[in-house]
Amino acid sequence: MARFVKAKRGKIAVDPVESYLKDLSEIWRSGGGVAEESYYGAMQKLLDEIGSKLKPRVRCVGQLKNTGAGAPDFGLFTADQFQRAKDTLPIEGQLPSRGVIECKPWDDDSFARSESAQVSKYWKRYNLVLVTNYRDFVLIGRDDGGKPLRLESFRLAESEDTFHAMLAHPRKTADEHGPRLAEFLRRVMLHAAPLTEPEDLAWFLASYAREARFRVEQKAALPALEGLKRRSKRRSE
Asked: Between 36 and 105, whose confidence is greater?
């Protein structure tokens, strides 16, 4: 399974979430943004940065070919799915091993869209679908019976207006919400990775424990954590 790559000594690490928020803000303030498409670059940059810290590296690729279920906005591929490291596209015929991403406008409700016919098509083909409107993120996977299951979600802002206010202060927003968003996206990218080492399971459990601390008051369940526990139990048997 994947592990994190440490930053090289002497280099100043750039917070990927702060960079993401700044990119969104600059496009929005320019007045030239069009629905979700204008912000694709910011999303791809964020996912690539998070994925670059994993082994094997996870890369975000846009403009996927229609393989019979439509064309998702992005696919998450591992490094071994590319013939050469410098290639921008994966090997022909490869499906994204870590799932696909479907982006919606900021004023769209990703939580409602996660049950749309379009997302259902993607889920049947790719098994994992991350639905987002850039401020809400919902991961759809499979339950033990092979049926669609909302595994977990992350909400950065309750509404588009709140999101606009947060974008005015990207560093403050990143300081408050960045670690959780980054960790959520790491879990998304690692969800389909095999649990081959004890430390792999330990990282997931610790990550979910950190997230659970934020949800104690809401008492929100994490289906992905329950699935992980079942995988751990089967592995130990």
From this structure: 105
C-alpha of 17 from chain center: 12
Are the CB atoms for 102 and 130 separated by under 8 Å?
Answer: yes
Question: What residue ranges define each of the domains in the chain, with the CATH number in brackets?
Answer: 14-195 (3.90.1570)
pTM of the model: 0.83
151: nearest Cα among 125, 119, 129, 183: 129
What single DSSP character describes residue 117? H
Q: Whole-angstrom Cα distance, residue 116 to residue 126?
A: 15
With cut-offs at 50, 70 and 90, classify the pLDDT of residue 25. Answer: very high
The average confidence (pLDDT) of the chain is 84
Q: E strands, 107-158, where?
A: 129-132, 136-142, 148-155
Query: Is residue 194 a contact partner of residue 102, using CB atoms and an 8 Å limit?
Result: no
Environment class of 13 (CB within 10 Å of its CB; exposed 0-12, middle 13-18, buried 19+)? exposed
